[in-house]
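Protocol step 4 of 5: obtain the predicted structure for the target chain.
Materials: sequence only (see below). No template structures provided, no constraints applied. The aim of this step is simply to have a reference model before the mutagenesis design in step 5. Sequence pasted as it appears in the construct record:
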Amino acid sequence: MTKSINNQITDCICGRGDITPALAVYGKRRLITETELAEMWGISQSTIQHWRSTGIGPLYKKLGGKIRYALEDVIAYEERQTFQGSGERINR
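Step 4 output (structure tokens):
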């Protein structure tokens, strides 16, 4: 049975199991593709592409013409997207 990208990422972050081919490794930084990020967040790749072109979303890397996202940048972006019930952003 193939693990979902979310489970693969969780395993890598928590140090369980091996890094699968779906997760590239750049030094000690774990990188994911645009497709994997879209699957992880449950949104379309075109949304991620649009966000990237307008300066929204996590930082990204362009390596050999390919877009990659460092997991720590994705997590940092997610942390900045935390809001209270009133809609007020919570600074973390």
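Step 4 remarks: The two ends are 37 Å apart (CA to CA). Residues 37 and 43 are 8 Å apart (CA to CA).
Proceed to step 5.
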